[in-house]
Amino acid sequence: MIHSRITGTGSCLPGDPVTNDALIAARGLDSSDAWIVERTGIRARHFAPEGMAASDLALVACRRALAAAGRQPNDIDLIVLATSTPDFVFPSTATILQDKLGITNGGAAFDLQAVCSGFIYALAAADKFIRSGSHQRALVVGSEVFSRILDWQDRGTCVLFGDGAGAIVLEASDTPGILATALHADGRHRDILSVAGQLSGGRPIGDPLLRMDGQAVFKFAVKVLAEVAEEVIAAAGLTKAQIDWLVPHQANIRIMQATTKKLHLPPEKCIVTVDRHGNTSAASIPLALDEAVRSGKLGAGETALLEGVGGGFTWGAALVTL
Ligand code: UT7
Q: Could you tell me the pTM of the whole model?
């Protein structure tokens, strides 16, 4: 039986951290460090400079993941890149990344859009490609430049997000690495978090900036993240007690604490990067995973629950062992 395993992780954060106070001063916001820290846990985030695109951040993250896996770019026959802030309408950011990496072997490359659940969707998709036998080695990437779609007049959203990228190399293996995945969506809730703009006749029409009903998203997230965690643990035939680490989407420390409690995990077993990265949407889980691996927290043979929720609404989880 063919399984898939994570063999390397990598990530990229652009530039220097921008603290809450620096952001408030730069944008003239009616806000405070105390409010942002208390309500979200966020203290700083990174922003990509003008001209730096999602494919540029993904390139750095992928090179680091390839080096960790001991692989060359042309060993990769599949790229699945999750983003809501692609370089262009088309071609896909995945094909731009493929070219920047120097991959010329004709492997498949495509973008996947599930907003903040994007990395979980991409991981589940790549796992299924590999287990089918059609592909051997994938780069699974989340890369975002959310700073480009923020309304700097809206203090309720512009303090929450940051830019970054994370990537893994996922390879065919005789032993299981991805133990189970679960994906869900409910399009009836698509309006509570959206960028409802489009290009028409060469111009943006509609509203091309991020809008969110924060409280509705918060309630929805807490509920579905608890449900999908239980689902994926049961699907793998495990119990909560067998989960070593939680690597959640990094949107709000209070949502992450609620899930940690429901899993009966001690707080230190939840990987937290939201304080330094903010919410980097599809990049947040692979960024947190890379930090957990490189810091030596998440060790070989340990089991981690990855889970995310985002616009659409979409949500999902993956149970992995390294
Ligand atoms: O990645 C996708 C998933 N996204 C999420 O998970 C986000 C989920 N939602 C949240 O994290 C929280 O709802 C927020 C952090 C967005 C907001 O926190 P909240 O505790 O739900 O605050 P609120 O929206 O109820 O606002 C409370 C007050 C309001 O003032 P009034 O009406 O009580 O006078 C807001 O105008 O806080 C005000 N407020 C702010 N004050 C200072 C909103 N944003 C700010 C701000 N600084 N940046």
A: 0.98
